[in-house]
Amino acid sequence: MLVHGNKKKKLETETQKLNWTKNKKALEHRPKPHSIEAQNIPLIDLSPLLKHPDSLSGLVVEIGDACQNWGFFQVINHGVPSKCRQKVESAARKFFALPKEEKRKVSRDEGNPFGYYDSEHTKNVRDWKEVFDFAVQNPIIIPASHEPADMEMKELFNKWPESLPELREACDEHTAEMEKLAFKLLELIALSLGLPKDRLNGFFKDQTSRVRLNYYPPCPAPHLTLGVGRHKDTGVLTILAQDNVAGLEVKRKTDGQWILVKPTPDAYIINVGDIFQVWSNDKYESVEHRVVVNSEKERFSIPYFLYPSHYTWVEPLEELINEQNPARFKRYNWGKFRATRNYELRGSTLLKLEWIILLELGGNTLLELGGSTLLEQGRRWREATSLWATFVALDSLSYLTMGNPREPWIALSYLTMGNPREPWITLSYLTMGYNEGPWIA
Ligand SMILES: O=C(O)CCC(=O)C(=O)O
Question: Where does the Fe2OG dioxygenase domain lie (predicted)?
Fold first, then answer.
C-alpha cells in the first residue's frame, strides 16, 4: 500500500503535471473502484405526516430501523416545494460560475468561517471542491474561544455576494423549508427512541445550525482523490440535497463497504450525526461518508446541518441510560467544542475516547489520556484481540498534524493496526491537550 522512494517521486511528478497534488489523497484513502451501487440506503415516504398525522407508528418504526441499521436514509413526499429546491440549486450554480475574484470577495477568513472557500480539507487532506457556508441564524452568537473560563461571546455575520442577490433570497427560502423538515424528523426520531415527540426541541432555542453549498468540479484524476474525504457529521442531523450526479458514498454498517447513494429525484438524504449518537448512547451511530468525483460532470449538493444552541451540554439522554446500559460518553459543551474546531479540518471527536488507548508504539504508551469507560473498553478490546497500534512507516507521517501552528493539539489522524478487514483506522481529532478537555465535564 505504501509508495516509497523513486516510485513515490515519479507518482508525484506525474500528478504535479495535472496540478492537483494538494488534493491527492494518500493511497489508502483513494476511492476504490468497487463501491457498491446495487443496494441503496432506505427510502422513506413521509406522506403519512400529512395524510395520517395521528397514526405514525409505521413511519416511526421505519425511521428508527433506518437510523439504527444505516444511520442514513432518503425521504420523499417531505413537503419541500420542488420550486424552492430548483431555485436554490440554480442560484448555487450561478454563484460557483462567477469569476474567482468575485467569489473571493465573500471569502471565509480567520475570524469568520462563513462565506466562500476553495481549499477545504478533510482530515488534513485537501478536498476536490469549492464551498459556500452560511449560518441559519444571522448573526449567530457563539463562544469566542474554547477556554471554559472565557465567557466572551462573538457575533458572526453571513457574507453574501452583492453581484448575485438572488443567492441570499433562494438560500433563505430553502433554509426555512429545511428547518421545518428538520424538526419533523427530529420529532419522528425522538418517537423512535421511545421519547415524547418534543423531547429534543428545547435544545434548539438558539440553534447554531448552518448550511453549505458544495460544488465539485470535474476532476482529471477522480480515482486518486475525493470530493470530501471520509468523515462523520458532528451535529444532530444533516439534510442533504444532491443533484442528479451520484457521488455520495455511505459506509455500510454491516460490512464496512462504501455504498454509492443513487440520486432519487426530489429526495433529501438524511443522516444522524455525532450528537444523536451521544444522545441515544450509541443506539443511532453517526456513520462515515465521503464523496467521489468524476472526470466529466460537475456536481452540486446542499447539506443543512442541524446544530443545537451553543450552551447545550451534549450527553446521553437520561431516559436512555440505566445500570445495564450506562452512559458511554462524557458530556461536552457544544459551543466550546465548536470553538476548538479548525474549520479546515473535519471529523468526529467522539472516537477519540474509544481509540486513544491504541496510541502506543512498541509497548510504550504515547498518550494515556482520560480514564473513561471507553478507554477501559479500548484497553480490554486490545488485550482480547492482541492488536497493536504502530505508525506505518513514512507515509503515514504525512498525516501527523502535530506541529500545525494553529492547532498543535490536533494530531495523529491515521493509524494502522494490522486488522485484516480494516487495516487503516481513522482517528480524526485527537485533541491531545483537550481529551479530558475543559469542555468535557
Ligand atoms: O456532497 C455530498 O453528497 C455530501 C457532502 C458532505 O458530506 C459534507 O459537505 O459534509
Answer: 207-308
> Burial letters for 212-244: b for 16+ Cβ neighbours within 10 Å, e otherwise?
bbbbbeebebbebbbbbbbbbbbbbbbbbbbbe
Cell 447545550 appears where? 312
- Ligand 1 atom at minimal distance to the Cα of residue 269: 3
228 Cα: distance to centroid of ligand 1 (angstroms):
7
Say if ligand 1 is within 6 A of residue 349 CB. Answer: no
Is the C-beta atom of 289 inside 6 A of ligand 1? Answer: yes
Answering whether pTM is above 0.90, one says no
115 lines ligand 1 (CB under 6 A): no
Assess if residue 37 is contained within a domain.
no
Of the three residues 301, 333, 351, the one that is the final residue of a domain is: 351
More confident residue, 248 or 390: 248
Give the Cα-Cα-Cα angle 140, 146, 148 (nearest 5 degrees).
110
Listed range (36-50, 165-179, 379-393) with the worst mean pLDDT: 379-393
Place of cell 423549508: 177
- pLDDT confidence bin for 119, thresholds 50/70/90: confident
